Amino acid sequence: MADNDSSRAEAPPSLKDAEWLKRRETGRVFAALSGTGIETRAVGGAVRDALLGLPVTDIDFATTAVPDKVMARARKAGLKAIPTGIAHGTVTVVAEGAPFEVTTLRRDVETYGRHAKVVFTEDWAEDARRRDFTLNALYAGQDGTLYDPLGGYADLVAGHVRFIGDAKARIAEDYLRILRFFRFNAYYGKGPLDAVGLSACVKQRDGLRLLSAERVCAELKRVLVAPQALAAIDALFDYGLLTDILGSAPRLRRFAHLIAIETSCSCAPNAVLRLAALAVFVAEDASRLAARFKLSNAEQAVLALGADEALDPALPEESAAKRLLYRLGPDKFSLQVLLTWATRGAAADDTEWRRAFALPERWEAPSFPVRGPDLAPFKLEGPALGEMLRVLEQHWIDSGFSADREQLAAHAAALSRKSSTRDR
Fold first, then answer.
1. Of 66, 60, 61, 58, which is closest to residue 37 (Cα–Cα)?
2. What is the pTM of this model?
3. What is the pLDDT of residue 108?
4. Residues 343-384: pLDDT tens digits?
5. In this predicted structure, what is the pLDDT of residue 7?
6. Angle of helix 271-279 relative to helix 318-344, nearest 10 degrees?
7. pLDDT for the residue 12
8. How far apart are alpha carbons 248 and 288 in whole angstroms?
9. Residue 1 — pLDDT band, cuts 50, 70, 90?
10. Could you write out the three-class secondary structure of 117-136?
11. Residue 115, pLDDT score
């Protein structure tokens, strides 16, 4: 079982004190898949993020055990084993209710886009060489010992997102790696983009058209909420990829302004909101993007908030904000205010806009006090009843939500008399 750890300028530290390595469920997986002739290590994102001091949630494992043996040993240890990708060496092991992807060390012998024929191996360096970026080819044993076959730790510290081996070959194996290159830079990059990787991404950008809409959208969403999302989106635009991905020209200035406002207001980034800011000009854009990326109806509704015709020109005036909050509810209200604020270009610390955004904290929209049965004396039915309720509700909103049931009944009576007079 060769390691073939290459020499490197800076050896990675131990993760022996990492909390996630001490979790009961993690220990059960290690215990089930360790022993004579078998070695198992955590790999990829969990190791990378732990080295950066970031929270670790999903934990993947690499093992020298072949899939059938992984399943047998997991079940013998009382764990659930699911053959989620057994042809490619992946088994999902469930311990204490938590799922872990366990993949046998492998090398690709032939690739078909994201699919490949694989041969299992016991060579950790060989397994590392089939991964995408060096900073993802990091392994950790149960005792926290780090294994770095390709010098990924030095790249991680330097913020250098570098393809493993030939960048063009890595991309040809899965064209989604073009977007992953920008996404990983948006999360971990420091300084200029790797020139070799960037050149390969630009030259092979047509490969993005071969990917499913769902995969492209999922990766784009991750880019949009990354810590350096603005730099990544700017780079995608500068190098000619963004317009192809969106199918239209972007609104870079509004996107940048939204991020500044979110930062000023301590708002957690929302991928669909940011997509609306970046790519929606008119209502048709929302439906086009929803169809292009196969988004849900709820996501399309958020995109529609970014259309210019949906923006209330009276904002941030207080009465306009109250009307909007009543109509949309607190969640959509906040999104609409952020998009309108970003579109107008007001400063991120603008007092009036901040007050409008904070309206749900100090004012709860009241309930319309009139219902259909309240209008029984007027003997209205069907569309006529619905129209009367609509007119009364608008009158109530225009009154600043102050008209009570009696006042609205009187207004209904007056409207009814006028209608009767016209019908004579």
1. 66
2. 0.88
3. 72
4. 999 999 999 999 999 999 999 999 999 998 988 888 888 998
5. 42
6. 70
7. 76
8. 10
9. very low
10. EEEECCCHHHHHHCCCEHHH
11. 53
Residue type for position 91: V
Q: Closest Cα to residue 48, out of 169, 132, 174?
A: 132
Q: Look at the domain 162-246 and name its fold.
A: Hydrophobic Seed Protein (1.10.110)
> Does domain 1-158 correspond to CATH entry 3.30.460.10?
yes
Q: How far apart are CA 420 and CA 60, in angstroms?
A: 74
pLDDT tens for residues 7-65? 444 677 899 999 999 999 999 999 999 988 899 999 999 999 999 999 999 999 999 99
